[in-house]
Specification:
- This protein is an alpha+beta fold.
- Strand 3 and strand 4 form a beta hairpin.
- Helix content is about 30%, strand content about 20%.
Length: about 150
Amino acid sequence: YQRRVHGTKEEMKNESNPACKLLKKFVANLHDVEMIGRFKAIPRVANAHEADHVGYYLKHMMKTWAGKPFLTQPQHTFIKHPNCIQIDIDVHTFCLAAKKAAYSLMDLVSGLVIDIGFTVEGRSDEELPEQVLGGMRLHKVSPQLGKPIEYW
């Protein structure tokens, strides 16, 4: 769950910067496969320097991919509600390499602080520079304590 930063609504109305114009276009076109295919996630492990318990391969992977954006398509679903947009990213349908990496971290994630930023990919000069639109922090989450989500 995220809220808009104060002033964002006004910036989107005024189209005061390229990122706001692009976000407005994105929200208005959630039915357009090309547009929703531009949604990107930007992960990084904030406490990678403390992650001695992950082993060489995962430590190297965390360093190599830190802060590198990736398109989340087609593993995402967008649902527009009256006052918000719900974005579901299904890790189970990622490509094999990404899925293996995610599952390798499952037992280790309880010691990690993972930041994930989100943006919409700009594809022309008018849509650049890209800007982080939101983010979340997973602070030493224990997957073993998670409960299944009951869908309505």
